[in-house]
Design goal:
alpha+beta, 2 domains, five-stranded mixed β-sheet, five-stranded antiparallel β-sheet, 2 helices, 12 strands, about 50% strand
């Protein structure tokens, strides 16, 4: 028999945190936050390009996703899927995908064919064109258009 937590089976989860293309520091920060919040981890799975962490608290998972983006910068996607119906209410599981950026402040990058310098990696990516000095704000959903230039 599997032990339960507050009446829930140990493998019970409400959210999946998908960490992709990350440094060890991101994984360590995530586990530290989960332990600090005393959130049950149903399982951890190594997958191609990263790791999936199954958590018993979807609200905590959403908050953790936002913390990851603020601390490390990166693409954050949230999706929900219907898990079932309990007492006439729909129950949803959430999936939070966090993909770390491959560049940091000060790096030279190519953005749509123009050479730029990364000024900020926070809520959005701020680039400055080297030739014109023009500032460009890039959303994380478009970060694939930014390529790190070889030094």
């Amino acid at each position: 028999m599997v032990k339960s937590i507050e009446g829930k089976r140990m493998e019970y989860y409400e959210a999946i945190i998908q960490l992709r293309d990350i440094e060890q520091e991101v994984y360590d920060f995530s586990i530290e936050q989960i332990e600090k919040g005393k959130i049950h981890i149903a399982k951890v799975e190594d997958v191609k390009g990263g790791v999936d962490i199954y958590l018993a608290d979807r609200d905590f998972a959403k908050t953790l996703g936002k913390k990851l983006q603020l601390k490390f910068g990166g693409k954050l996607l949230l999706s929900a899927s219907l898990y079932g119906i309990k007492d006439g209410r729909e129950i949803f599981r959430v999936t939070i995908l966090f993909r770390e950026v491959t560049f940091v402040k000060g790096d030279r990058v190519d953005y749509k064919g123009d050479e730029c310098i990364v000024k900020t990696v926070a809520k959005e990516i701020v680039l400055q064109h080297i030739k014109s000095g023009k500032i460009v704000h890039v959303k994380y959903k478009e970060m694939e258009k930014i390529k790190l230039m070889e030094e």
